[in-house]
TrEMBL record:
<dbReference type="InterPro" id="IPR016848">
    <property type="entry name" value="RNase_P/MRP_Rpp29-subunit"/>
</dbReference>
<feature type="region of interest" description="Disordered">
    <location>
        <begin position="63"/>
        <end position="86"/>
    </location>
</feature>
<protein>
    <submittedName>
        <fullName>Uncharacterized protein</fullName>
    </submittedName>
</protein>
Length: 156
């Protein structure tokens, strides 16, 4: 689109119908200059032209200050021991202590151990196998004890 098409005056019959007053280019220029003067903050002592031509202009950028009162990211805090006792977190109901309920966990553990020892060969170094098993997680394993601390106390 050419500039002449943008800046053409509004036809008089359209001005009458719309009830608007066409702005002349001098009025528009004066309005634009006044608007820009109000929007741009000028230093009181220096003229903008002399400031730009003779010196480097530092724009009004400031680093955002770190908020000292701002706490670390809020993480969900766990319960302390007293709250756990009140809520009876570790007291499992007898109907939830059945052996059959823990068998699926044991199957998961067996799969974990198979995956852990999957790269081991029968000819592997026993110390290597021992290190792998020492670092393994035994949650879900079926562990049988020979005696307990209660047995020791009863024998003494």
């Amino acid at each position: 689109m050419e500039e002449t098409e943008v800046c053409i005056p509004i036809p008089r019959d359209l001005v009458r119908r719309l009830g608007v007053e066409p702005h002349t280019s001098t009025k528009a220029t004066k309005f634009t200059e006044a608007y820009l003067r109000n929007c741009i903050q000028q230093p009181t002592r220096l003229d903008v032209k002399s400031m730009v031509t003779h010196k480097a202009v530092i724009l009004g950028y400031r680093r955002p200050k770190k908020d000292k009162t701002k706490k670390k990211s809020k993480k969900a805090k766990g319960l302390n021991a007293q709250q756990k006792r009140k809520m009876k977190v570790f007291q499992i109901k007898p109907d939830h202590q059945r052996y059959e309920l823990f068998l699926p966990l044991h199957e998961l553990w067996r799969q974990y151990i198979i995956d852990l020892c999957g790269g081991l060969k029968p000819t592997s170094n026993p110390q290597f196998v021992q290190q792998k098993l020492l670092k393994a997680d035994f949650h879900g394993a079926i562990v049988t004890g020979k005696f307990s601390s209660k047995d020791k106390q009863q024998k003494c």
